[in-house]
Amino acid sequence: MPKVVACFKWVVDEAYIRKGGGGALDFSAVDYKLSEYDRNALEEATRCRGEGGTVTALTAGSPEAAKGLKDALSRGADTAVFASDPAFAALDSSQTAAVLAEVIRNRIPYDLIICGEGSGDQYAQQVGPRLAENLGIPCISYVQKLTVAAEGGRITAERRVEEGVEVVEASFPVLVTVLPEINIPRIPGVKDTLMAGKKPVVTVKNEELPPLGAAKLKTLAMTAARLERNCELFGTAPEDIARFVTALQQKGVSG
Q: Rounded to whole angstroms, how far apart are CA atoms 91 and 94?
């Protein structure tokens, strides 16, 4: 059965983000969580593992992201690998893919790599394809159903595309990025959480990796979205109804 790597990211919980002065976002009281999309990736990895396979949960980030390792392990992964350094706190997609590729290439045997289609914070949808490119393996994106062949060595994936569903096959090694509808992630129980604390975790330091290249993308600012409404109250009098119909016609609404 396959050796599966599930990549995940420890992201800001948007429920704790507040709107600050001047429309800026206030992150002073935020908490963090495992990205929802990566929960699907971890769940699918454990499903594809089958009997005799392995699942390695992999992430890169600042030392604070270590809090996410136990969550990932409680969702069925056998071991976790953490590329940790303060410099990894704000990696862009190209840097993240480069770090993950270096760790996988030299430290993790794999047949299948599973990533969420995007992350819960930036949702750039870049890490999976870039990681596959760095490793020189095929990438199948927008996967809504994944099947590992009974004889092993191949997968069949259903991709959601604009025209419908595309079914493709690929031999190991291969990387897939999965959509949320591919499964329903498990909710770890008390036993799962306790067992996670006993599973092995390997930490890789920045000095053990090649020099990190410059970021290709830089976030200049983040501001809260503004929703402006121009509300107008219409009554039931004939003149109000006529005014309402006129307003609809001006907006191109008919019938």
A: 8
Superfamily of structural domain 3-208:
HUPs (3.40.50.620)
- Convert the pLDDT of each residue in 160-182 to its tens digit: 988 899 999 999 999 999 999 99
Q: Where are the domains of the chain?
A: 3-208
CA 5 to chain CA mean position, Å: 14
Q: Quick one: tokens of 153?
A: 């060595």
Residue 166 pairs in a beta bridge with: 159
C-alpha dihedral sign at 62, 17, 34, 100: negative
Quickly count: other Cβ atoms within 10 Å of residue 151's Cβ: 6
- Which residues are within 8 A (CB) of 86 and not within 5 positions of it... i.e. 6 or more apart? 62, 63
How would you classify residue 192: left for phi > 0, otherwise alpha for psi between -120 and 50, otherwise beta? alpha
pLDDT tens-digit series, residues 218-232: 777 777 777 677 777
Length of the chain, in residues: 255
What's the start-to-end Cα distance of the chain, in Å?
A: 59
Mean pLDDT score of the chain, rounded to an integer? 87
Q: Do residues 215 and 98 make contact, with C-beta atoms less than 8 angstroms apart?
A: no
Q: How large a percentage of the chain has pLDDT more than 90?
A: 51
- Hey, CA dihedral for 122, 128, 133, 135, is it positive or negative? positive
Beta-bridge partner residues of 246: none
Pairing of strands 201-205, 174-178: unpaired
